[in-house]
Amino acid sequence: MKKISLLLIGLIAMVFSTQIKAQETQELEDLNYFKYVVIPIQYQFQSEENEFLINSLTKHLFNEENFTTYMDVESKPKDLTFNRCLALFAEVKSESESFFSLNTKLELILKDCNNKVIFKSEGRSKLKDYKEAYHDALKDAFTPLQSFNYEYNGKNSYDSSKFEEEEQKSPIQKEPKKETKSFEETVKEKLIGTYSLFNEEYSISKIEAGYILTNTATAEKKAFINVTSNNSLLFNSDTINGTLVINDDGDLEVEYFNNASGKVEKATLYRVE
């Protein structure tokens, strides 16, 4: 009788486990219906924009898994501007496991345009340093995505001709820029110019959505720089997503998370002229 009971318990546990795995697989498959991921410059638990570089790291980790990402302060492509339901919207929540727990726990959540949760995952860390613990926990939360090969399937339909018609009838109104004119003028004066990094020369010029860093020799666009509403600067390239500071010498110091080393590092572009 005991053997039968144990067998039944084992069978129920196996069925339950299979159902959970099937649900998790479906959640991951649902990600393929979305073309973009939009990441806020500040999560609710943060006291300032991109605190501890968590938001930049979120963008970097999604990019590593082949997602096309935008910070909420960045200029968006036309299809996303017209149809925000093409995107998933990222949230990261910080939760304390218990009053006496020394663990850092983060929850990664992806919601659609109707605020429906499409995917969520938890990550934990036992590291003591706040920044390192947050980064470690966030990377842990991305673990399920590392074994999933995301690929947009195009089934989140978007009719470009409809967009053209709507754009002609009612042009999309751009949100008025926030009152940061004096800061933006100062940034423009300090940023635009020529810089040197690893014996290569780069130039920064102004574009509508911010600033662009270009390799002077090859004319290749290397990075975009955006001004946030909190008067800080974001540096985004294919390999680096972080914050930028202009030092007293006019050099550009970029602080970013190096995925290879697992550490926060700095790169400096030295002002030439």
Number of helices: 7
CATH topology value of the largest domain? Rossmann fold
Separation of termini? 86 Å
Q: In which order are the strands of the major sheet placed?
A: 6-7-8-9-10-11-12-13
Helix share of residues? 25-40%
| Total discrete domains | 2
Helices and strands, in order, run as HEHEHEEEHHHHEEEEEEEE
Describe the global form. Answer: globular
**Uncertain residue ranges:** 15-23, 158-167
Counting helices, strands and paired strands, the structural category is alpha+beta
CATH hierarchy: architecture of the largest domain = 3-Layer(aba) Sandwich
| CATH class annotation of the largest domain | Alpha Beta
How confident overall, as mean pLDDT?
A: 81
Describe the structure.
Helix 2 packs parallel to helix 4 (130-141). The protein is globular and about 55 Å long. It has helices at residues 2-30, 54-64, 78-82, 130-141, 143-146, 160-169, 181-191; strands at residues 36-39, 69-71, 87-95, 104-111, 117-125, 193-197, 200-207, 210-215, 221-227, 233-237, 241-246, 252-258, 263-271. The protein contains seven helices and 13 strands. The chain is α+β, with helices and mostly antiparallel strands. The strands form two sheets. It has an eight-stranded antiparallel beta barrel. Strands 2-1-3-4-5 form a five-stranded mixed β-sheet. The chain has two domains: 15-150 and 161-168, Rossmann fold, CATH 3.40.50; 181-271, Lipocalin, CATH 2.40.128.
Structure keywords:
273 residues; alpha+beta; Rossmann fold; Lipocalin; 5-stranded mixed beta sheet; 7 helices; 32% strand; globular
